[in-house]
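WARN retry 2 of 3 for item q-0093 after timeout on previous attempt; input resubmitted unchanged.
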Amino acid sequence: MRIISLLPAATDIVAMLGLTGHLVGRTHECDWPPGGLADIPVVTATSLPETLTSREISAAIAGDAHRGSSLYQLDVALLEGLKPDLILTQDLCDVCAVSYQRVNDAVGLIDLDTTVMSLEARTIDGILDTVDAVAALTGTEGRTAEIRADAERRLAALPGPVPGAPTVLFVEWLDPLMPGGHWVPEQINYAGGRSVLLGPGAHSTPHRWSVVADLAPEVVVFGPCGFTPERTVDELSVATAQPGWADLPAVRDGQVWVVDGPAYFNRPGPRVVDGAEILAGILAGRPDSRARRVPLDVG
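OK item q-0093 returned
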């Protein structure tokens, strides 16, 4: 089977199912497994420079939406030449990947005999169901029981909701502020915390930073979508310069953290279980190397 993945999370799933050798195309953002994708053709691109701030990115996205254009370019000629049997994409977020509708339109125009599957998980169970669905289309059902059992075992080993659990704000975008939605509140709950602003499965929407002072979260975790931890640290002044920031319980107690959002939190793939474990380490006072504490004097 010849597979094209137009969503980094789908590439994660394909790899976990042992199908990396069947990938014939991928996005410019696919980066896992490390070193395993270098020879696979890239069929998408974006015109956004990597140096833009989160505010500039938000403005560019809004401008594209107003003009009816897309953040992503799809190489339709290359797509046709690769002759995929299966294309994996999504229709959950217009700024996460090429949309399902756009891919369907492209496939219709070039008359490809291929299956287009949209991955639309909003919860952790939904993510595991997506793995099952991809496996069913690729004849790898034997792997899914192991993947699901491992995820469920690891999640069950976490503290889960506990009385008096600390309140946690997960920041998925800096400017404007967007809290982690969909499966992120579940990750927080499994880790032994209480998500503020959003509950499990809820879609994230922009908020004013002024609401954070009223919420007074006890833990703040930054994991912006598409940002490396280093890039996140470079832009933390968006938050730390806000009125009342220094008075937040999380700041006073040194409970402000930076994590790798794309790897463990932003993408609907099985590595969200790793993300829940990272949060559990933070909340238990035993953070591992995947969590970086923000110094109190930042900003």
